[in-house]
Specification:
Length: 355
Amino acid sequence: MHLGRTTLSKFLIENLSGTPDGADLAALLVDVAAAVKAIAALSARGALGGATGSLDTVNVQGETQKPLDVLSNTAFVNTFQLGGLVAGVASEEMDDPFPIRAPHKRGPFLAIFDPLDGSSNIDGNVSVGSIFSILRAPAKGEPQTADYLQSGSSQVAAGYALYGPATLLVITVGNGTHGFTLDREIGNFILTHRDIKIPADTSEFAINTSNERFWEPPVTRYINECKAGKTGPRERDFNMRWIASMVAEVHRILIRGGIFMYPRDNKDPSKPGRLRLMYEANPMSMIVEQAGGLSSTGRERIMDVVPTQIHQRIPVILGSRNEVERVVHYHQQFDSGTDQSYKSPLFSERGLYRS
Ligand code: AHG
Ligand code: MN
Ligand code: MN
């Protein structure tokens, strides 16, 4: 009954054989899928598997770790270490990159990952995920931290797993964004979402509005206009979602469009954003752009940013093309002093939506 369906392995062979390093990249993505299956099984056991609650350890971000953060990190590190296809790994849950050393074999890639995204949601049994980015390793020797600091446009593959009602793996190797659903009975990822395209227009936005007082004016302007709905300048009603799992948020946008924003704010001047460039923003930007969407800081394409640190944070505005362009335009108007929006009656001193 499963004959004729395209498995992840078949898809990768068809799409990567004949390209430089193609066989190795295909094998590496099969390894990623193996780690994802292990994490899917662990997370599905919930409290039965000891995956809930908090540990008394804090990661390099200053965040208290959950058992599943650590277990997922171990699943990825062990898979990559034994797989022989990467020269080093870097993770949200590890202070520094981890080089692959003898007796393990080094491979031609670097893997950077967020082993468990949205981990504040685990105890509530809300969807969580994993995010990964694959870069080329230096040709010789043990990779140094500087070797990982490549812009997102250098990624050779990227993707995420979503541990929701179904477990999904969504990947790109640079020829579109494709989704696979885990068939738990046979243990295979099956191609279920070929060449996903994000609708260019949307009436749905995702942002944590509890941070509103810390936002910059162009973001406040955009959100106020959405909230004003039919009676505001957009002349249509918008809907809002906030799951606090970037993976779940991005997946919804791939399926039905939308804009996701975790913008620059002044909550903590040492942090220019909430999300991390190398293992959240860059891989999700590649996924979104390969699906026809856009991804920006508001002022610059995320995948053009040259990283300076493994754990650096960055503002993220991604999703449906026309809405992201609009927010970028609002930033340009604000920065150049040509933003006239505050003169409109709706947003004036006495208006309904004064910023
Ligand atoms: P992580 O669990 O890997 O630390 O990432 C959580 C991220 C992201 O998934 C989500 O969009 C955002 O943090 C939620 O932040 P708030 O709690 O500020 O809403
Ligand atoms: Mn995350
Ligand atoms: Mn995480």
